[in-house]
Amino acid sequence: MGSTQPEFKNPATTSLLELVKSRRTYYGLKAESPIADDAIEQIVRDSVLHVPSSFNTQTSRVVLLLKEEHQKVWDIAINAMEGLVAAGVVPKDQFESSTKPKLNAFRAAYGTVLFFVDFESLAPIKEKFAIYADKFDPFATESNAMSQYLVWVALQSEGFGANLQHYSPLIDEQIAKTWNIPASWKLDAQLVFGTPTSEPGEKAFAPIEDRFKVFGK
After folding, report:
1. Can you name the CATH fold of 26-197?
2. pTM beyond 0.85, yes or no
3. Which residues of the chain have pLDDT under 70?
């Protein structure tokens, strides 16, 4: 007999898993929003407040940038890459044909969420639990990744498309100067979002049998 779908106690579980399944990377985005800015802010705010962290250290720091403020991020990235071209680090033809169009595509979106980690705030707990001291930085990064994922899924649920970028440390200094970011905040990722203008690519999966095991069933 074929397998049957299990029944969940809470119907919201099915909805949650469907959102997880539907989350994709969208590169074709435009500067329009299907929801009010206050709703976007609530999604990001709730992720900061409620995503768990090891020992409740609460090390994630997040900045939401919309419209013209969002565009500044990608102007910074374009200028930084142009500097690398001028220095001979990046070939000009590669920048013009590939990198610059990609950065302009990010700029054409509606917003960017900047995700930071405040590693310096971990000093007291590293001292208190010295045996785990080398683990707290990775724990903080993992907590930050959970925030990134939650915001991504929630934004897509509301009609946005999004893609996650990592342009650190190339843009870090100018980001900090532009928005007066505390020195202890270390930029980890940039989530670009907007209304989709194209479909995402096909999503391939490695065999689940090679990645998942169950014991005791």
Report:
1. NADH Oxidase (3.40.109)
2. yes
3. 1-3
